[in-house]
Structure formats: structure tokens, C-alpha cells
Amino acid sequence: VKYKWTHYLGTLLILAGLLIVIIPKMISNDENNDPVGIVLYLFSNVPSVLCILYKEIILKGLKLGTIYVNSQIAIWQLLFTLLY
User: Which of 5, 63, 76, 80 could form a disulfide with 47 if both were Cys (CB 3.0 to 4.6 A apart)?
Assistant: First the structure.
């Protein structure tokens, strides 16, 4: 798969926006902004991102039904989230 420069730019903009919002919260001394909690919340998205990548790879390479692929993704996402 070849990505265009706009895909990379969009990814960088999302990450920059995320950092602009999170870094001040992590440095502040507010009791409600626990840096460990913020980092855990960020990494909690890893299972869903892996499932989206899996879905993209499977749907492009094979001709499977959408319901089958979504059910497989739901099972793996549940397992990875529970392990996390």
C-alpha cells in the first residue's frame, strides 16, 4: 500500500493536537491529572488500532464477509483488552 503525503500529514496533525492537549495536563500539579492515568488511557487505544489494521489487511487480501470479519475482530479485541 502506498500512502500519500496527505496521509502522513494527517497523522502528524492528530499526534500534534494530542500532544498539545496532553503535555500541559501532565505537567500541571492538579490532583485530577495523574500522568500515569493519562499514559494508560493513551495506550488503551492499542487493541482497537490493531483490530482496525487487522480488518484492513483481511478485507483487502481476502474476500470474506463483513459480519465474519467483524465478529473475529470483536473476539480478538475483547481478549487483548482484557489482557491489557
Answer: 80
Give per-10-residue mean pLDDT for the chain (84 aa): 81 84 74 72 75 73 75 81 78
Is the whole-model pTM more than 0.85? no
Is residue 81 helix, strand or coil?
A: helix
Residue 17 C-alpha cell reads as: 493536537
Per-residue pLDDT at 1: 65
Enter the DSSP assignment of 2.
P
Give 31's DSSP letter.
T
Q: In this structure, what are the phi and psi dihedrals at residue 30, rounded to the nearest 5 degrees? A: -65, 135
- Joined together, the cell numbers standing for residue 14 give 492528530
Taking each helix axis from N to C end, the angle separating 5-27 and 35-43, rounded to the nearest 10 degrees, works out to 160
Residues 6 or more apart from 55 whose CB is under 8 A from it?
Answer: 69, 70, 73
